[in-house]
Design goal:
It is built from no helices and 7 strands. It is mostly beta strands.
Length: 108
Amino acid sequence: MSGELSEQYTVESVFPSFRECSPNDIWGKWKVPKDTVLDLGFQVRWKIVFASLKLNLKGYKKESPDDTPDLTLFYSEKLGIEYIRFQKYLSVVNISPSKSQNSLRCKN
């Protein structure tokens, strides 16, 4: 699902649950009502220098794919937030369930 919010950013992805503990859910099985948003992504459409945000990235995992050296991912499992930097600019922000919400995962 994609839709425009403003001239500055676009909703890149919204992944709702299909039903409680559904095997069809993209982000795993969750004990949440149907249509609960499990992942939300925003693509930034204007140039923000990533360093200018002065984000506290302590505890974030940092990854750079071998095939895309200009791309860097910063992910906090604890917070459920991922920042994607392309070159020196913020490119994408993804929000997904945090570690504290693991109790809502289905057992199987």
